[in-house]
Write a structure and sequence with these properties.
Elements: E1 3-7, E2 16-17, H1 19-26, E3 32-35, E4 38-39, E5 49-50, E6 53-58, H2 62-78, E7 86-90, E8 95-100, H3 102-105, H4 113-125, E9 143-145, E10 159-161, H5 167-173, H6 194-213, H7 227-235, H8 244-257, H9 262-275, H10 282-294
Antiparallel strand pairs: 1-2, 1-3, 3-9, 4-5, 6-8, 7-8, 7-10
Helix pairs in contact: 4-6, 7-9, 8-9, 8-10, 9-10
Length: 295
Amino acid sequence: MIYEYFQKYQKERNIFLPLSEIRERAAGKIDQYCSIFGYEPEDVANGNIFGPMYFDIDNPDIQKAYKDAQSLIETLRFYGLTDQDFQICFSGSKGFHVAILPVVMGVKPRPDLDKIYRKIAQWFSAQLTYKGIDPRVYERRRLWRVINSINSKSGLYKVQITGQESLDEILEKAKTPHLTMQKFPSLNDAVREWIPRASEEIKAEIEENTKRRKPKTTFHYDDPINPTVRSLIESGVDETNPGRNNTAFYIACYLRSKALSESEIEGHLQVFAENCRPPLEEHEVQSVIKSANRY
């Protein structure tokens, strides 16, 4: 797969290179970025993407950011992950990057991996004291700073850490570049269930949203009632509308013009009355029917 390479003062994006070449080019330079995901060269925009499950933890107060990062690491260890299974870095400013290596979760290339990761991040964000996980970073073209490149705001390097250091030790370490620690991750049977679980949750949310957007009534050409009147019956009107009874009277007269029976007219008016906010009283409905019959 290929990865996107970007430098802060670069005018345009869309430079794609092998990851090893990007790391070589970026080392020791200021504000160097690389895409989190790798892309299939044939279709960067819509094809499969592949990369680690990542967390970008930010807070204006670096101490709070670090506490959230340490809390996240403790939670990952609760699921049986070891130091070999994830990578944690100081960003060079006021944030921390945590990445679970793909083999741990059994990750396979897929086009919606960014959405899957966003859902998983939501689970963990709720457990952190300061809710420092940035939800905006879950998109297929997301960039983040290359390890051992320099943050122009602070002059510090993005460096790999263990999460056991003190904040002072981290800031001191970030004054110079460091070799990255080689990892030897392994598949975790509990963690590998996160992706199918997240996928099912996303699917259920999409179905629920579809139901909410679905119109209450499907209009047919043979429906004797005008779609506008039908919609009015099924939506009702608010109490702030000064003509609720007049609207009911209009509906009753319209339905009589369509040669509906008395019981059908009353049934439609009852639906309208129930959908008003607050509902029309029964005596008001009967009064409208009597008035319409005299019309």
